[in-house]
Amino acid sequence: MAAARRADVRLPELAAYGGGGLVPDGDYDGLEFAGADLAGQDGSGARFLDCALRDCAMDEARLTAARFLDSVLDGVRGVGTDLSGATLRDVEVVDARLGGVQLHGAVLERVLVRGGKVDYLNLRTAKLKDVVFEGCVLAEPDFGGAVLERVEFRDCVVTGADFSAARLKDVDLRTAQRLEIARGVDRLAGAVISTAQLLDLAPVFAAELGVRVED
């Protein structure tokens, strides 16, 4: 199994973000957003290059089709952040606290999600390549119709996952602390799981095959 190529973000010296609010199709280069309140702002189509967003509020922020390149999102928090159709390339997401974040149709390449908790993550029809989820909690993530290649779930908790119609290649689930799959267990071809996980998932596999288990 091919291992994921991890993101290695090395930021230059950053200038402080001057405020004023995000604007659609904005261009943000080499900036540090420290404790900024971005809730409800519209940065759709914006480009963030060599940026750091630290402890920012992102409730209901509209960042559709935005591009995050060689950037770090550290301690961001929010509910309903809309990143549908966005591109994240060479990005680290650290200790995020997010709920209902929309990443459907997004492209994630060389992305590290480390620590934190994300509830109801919507990655339907997204494309994930060289993505590592490490030490985080993913509650009811939706990978429906997504394409996952060289994706690793390391020491994380995954509950209620939906892999319906997903396509997997070199997806490593073996070291997930907890793995619960609600739908799409039939789409796990291309993934590797541990023996213990196989035993835990046996009832789900049996139900998928229409096998009734009785003592």
Automatic annotation (TrEMBL):
Gene3D superfamilies found in the cross-reference section: E3 ubiquitin-protein ligase SopA
One Pfam family linked to the record: Pentapeptide_4
UniProt-listed InterPro entries: 5peptide_repeat, Pentapeptide-BTB/POZ_domain
Source taxon at top rank: Bacteria
Designated name of the protein: Pentapeptide repeat-containing protein
Species in which this protein is naturally found: Streptomyces solicathayae
